[in-house]
Amino acid sequence: MEQSTEGKRFAVERPRVEVYLAYLLRAGSALAALLIAVGLAVLSITGDSVGAALVTAGLITLVLTPVARVVVAMILFLQERDYTFAIICAVVLAAVLLGVLLGRAH
Amino acid sequence: MHLPFAVYFVLSIVAGLIGSMLGLGGGIIIVPMLTLGMGLDIHHAVAASAVSIIATSTGAAVAYLHDRLTNTRVAMLLEVGTTLGALSGAYAATVLDSRWLHILFGLLMLYSAWNMYRARKQELPEGVQPDWLARRLRLSGAYYDQALDRTVTYQVTNTLPGLFIMYLSGGLAGMLGVGGGVFKVLAMDQVMRMPIKVSTATSNFMIGVTAAASSAVYFAQGMVEPLVAGPVVLGVLLGAMIGTRLMVRLKGSQLRTLFIPVFLVVAAQMLVRGVQL
User: Which band of pLDDT confidence, cut at 50, 70 and 90, is reported for residue B91?
Assistant: First the structure.
């Protein structure tokens, strides 16, 4: 995994799972920020309720991003036949969904 | 209408900056800011804070993954502990004495502050022997350290005790009124003996998942106020971008020093609450 080019920036290679997760998190946060910013701008200029709806859509995008991260990681681990970590992701996902269903905020 | 947006936004930049640098999420700053500073009631403030923790986590993760500081395998393993702990938290609240729990954890935080102080000059943990579980799950890692200008390889140990602490902290976080971030950093740094920068980045990565579960519940309860949470999220995302750039350039010893006052504040909060209960 590690290359011998010590001292060189990013000499450490990234596993495939992390590359994909970084894409996903970047896309999720960028989309959320865009929706919220446009929503707030619309709201400030026109005072229209469309603005509030856009902000809410952005917030929901943000909330779904970490959950999507667990799902995508699980799929990637399955593809790599790393079943231990696929199960770990499945347990986390189940616990999160169960927590939401039980209405348990902490 | 314009003024509160701007105030929420600017104050949240600071919260995102500190939260992302220390892997703590920033609820410690957002909640008092919204309640004491802006006069918001506690429920709406906690809901906005939960959403903002996702923003810190997600915003910072992009940078820390890029720098290989996040140990995603350790993160996902420990998430089993925090999420299952969170599920059993409500049960714990019914059987445990809240006063003594606050005092116990307050003392634990004091002890951690003392440990951090003693090890403040320590740049990287030395002589760490991986345990069987860390070896079996391939938890060791490597990253390029910008402050040291070299590649750091590290091992992970005490995996099961670490997982158990995550379970406890996940369960007690709601009861103690502190986010799990402090306990996550503590467990990885002091028990699993990971480098402090890796512990911080990995904690940052993890807090998004539990915060997402809480946020979904707050959304369903109608507690998330878009006009508050929206500008807070934008500010926190910007703060996290700045915070991560700063953190990767810090030395481990400098980062350790930053943790000491945070631990002391949390210790004081818990001890005061424990005595008052």
Answer: low
Which alpha helices (DSSP H) does A1-106 contain, by range? 16-46, 49-79, 83-101
The predicted complex's ipTM stands at 0.90
How many angstroms separate the CA atoms of B26 and B211, rounded? 12
Q: Could you tell me the pTM of the whole model?
A: 0.91
Of B57, B61, B217, the CB nearest to A103: B217
Q: Which of A36, A73, A100 sits opposite B216 (nearest CB)?
A: A100
In terms of C-beta density within 10 A (0-12 exposed, 13-18 middle, 19 or more buried), how is residue B269 classed?
middle
Q: Would an 8 Å CB–CB cutoff place B147 in contact with chain A?
A: no
Is the CB of B233 less than 8 angstroms away from the CB of A33?
yes
pLDDT over 50 at B212, yes or no: yes
Interchain contact, B212 vs A105, CB within 8 Å? no
Alpha carbon distance A56, B168 (integer Å): 33
pLDDT of residue B1: 45
